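[09:14] KT: can someone run the structure on this one? pasting the chain below
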Amino acid sequence: MTDKDIAAKVHSSMYRQIQDRGIAIPVQILIDIGVLSKQDYENWRFGRVDYLERVCKANLRKLSIIMREVRVYGQKSALKPSWTFYGRWGEKKKPVTKLRFSKSGNEGIERGYATHYISHQMIAKHHQMADAKKDKSNCEDVL
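[09:31] RB: done, structure tokens below
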């Protein structure tokens, strides 16, 4: 896969996520473009994998390109970056164990993977559509 192919796939995934939910999530992008399987993602979330990059089917150079393209698309599309805490699933103890994305644990790399990109306009549009559906169903209940 060339760098241009990677960029196109990343941008396509982000576009679809923004249209569908109003938010683009880097780990979902990795899944969408075939670099990360859902099973490997779940194993990482449950703490069975020590860091996410270990189970990605791309080398660090390609992962770096993917993450750069995520940032580029977010900036070009005026999306709001929002850091998100990733905790281990299935833990009953508090505080929940923070998951690692990279072997190095470098704060910049970790922050990149954990940053979601939000389109407030699309979220508002989704809320309006949901409200309209709710209003329509309430009207049908009355009839």
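[09:33] KT: thanks! Residues 3-142 form one domain.
[09:34] RB: yep, looked fine to me
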